Amino acid sequence: NLSLQEQPEQRRTHQRCRDYVKLERNLQPDARFCGARLPRLNPCWSERGATFCLPRFFILGEMKCGTTTLYELLLKHPRVLPPKTKEPRFLQTGRFGATTLSRYALEFADAAKHDDAVTFDASPVYLRSPTARFWLARWLPESKLIVLVRDPVQRTYSHWKMGSDWLTSKCSSPAQIEGFEKVRPWITFEAVARRSLIMTHMKICGALNGIMRIRQGLLPVRWPEGVGGLNSSFGRCLLERDEDLTHSFLDELDSRSPSKDFANALEKQGREAVQCSEMMLAPPSAVLKSATYAAEIERWAKVFPPDQLMVIDTDDLTRRRQQLMNETFNFLGLSAVDVGSQSRFCVKGKAGVMDVLHAEDVNISFSGKTARLQVGDCESDTATMHDERGVMHHNIDPTLQAQLRRFFEPHNQRLYRFLGRDLKW
């Protein structure tokens, strides 16, 4: 599995597989699926006495919206069998050319052994993958699709928290810890969220003013080339979108901050922090992924009919777990089963090779090295609270929360219009 390999080994694997992948990509369409389709609910084929299967359904995403919990609850059904890897990511844009369909089918070898089995792919990167969207519409048009959506403010915090946990777990040498302390003010939740907001506003205002090149990442924000400050149409756009936030970044925009010493530290330790966090701490992704549920779902709805697409509010996994799972099993053509009382599960390991981790577990492993922290949201601490229905909420600074909610509101309304219901975010 590529996700288990270091970069040099990954490059060697890509080199060895390149010719095989190219050969398969050049096959005629009717040669991609060999053999006879079997009369199963799950898409399976038989060829020369061998049976291979592909997924019946896909959990498309979104990341940090409970895909692991849904994955675990689905496995309560005796007919549902998991892939060998929780997130195969075969159809991830940028990764699609790295492996073959035959290799992908090996993920579902267990399902091939059982006539009544149903299997699935739970790669949450597919929601934003044009490759996944068009490949599934072309080759598995009968697929059932599930998308989880979560209160965007809560998802934004959870996104940052996973990045922060990765940073602590993966890069923990004394030198790294000392280096990260130098840039700590820029990698707190408040700092990442606010920087994500201003960069997103700048991206939107840039598009409205014909400015395509907007700096993104853990970097100082600067006026785009040729923009004349707050009095320009670009500057006025920023003020209209969030005046207080814009003024709070004015020293950076005008290149009066950060200091040269801090900028030098940011160049080195900031880049390493982003890499150690698997890019989760790089603005503006935490905010952007929380804002664009509707836009991504609408793209899928253009190529799949409504009866093949199910959208789940993450909080319903706690508020009405059994009822929701009954609806989900019915959507998949399966009978209802009791899924038990636990409604939250975490993950361990690197994205793409995640094993399920129950809340009471405390250790994770990276390439055979034990790490001290869980990756995920299962642990409870002083930064979280639960409502009367048991749904977990992160405590967030009220001023920042108001800024985030103001930004997300039009995006939420777009999602509500698509769903035909108000999720009250």
TrEMBL record:
Xref: InterPro entries: NST/OST (IPR037359), P-loop_NTPase (IPR027417), Sulfotransferase_dom (IPR000863)
Pfam family, one: Sulfotransfer_1
Sulfotransferase domain sequence ranges: 55-166
Gene Ontology terms, MF aspect: sulfotransferase activity
Transmembrane regions listed in the UniProt entry: none
UniProt keyword annotations, A-Z: Glycoprotein, Transferase
Source domain of life: Eukaryota
Protein name: Sulfotransferase domain-containing protein
Protein source organism: Chrysotila carterae
Organismal lineage: Eukaryota, Haptista, Haptophyta, Prymnesiophyceae, Isochrysidales
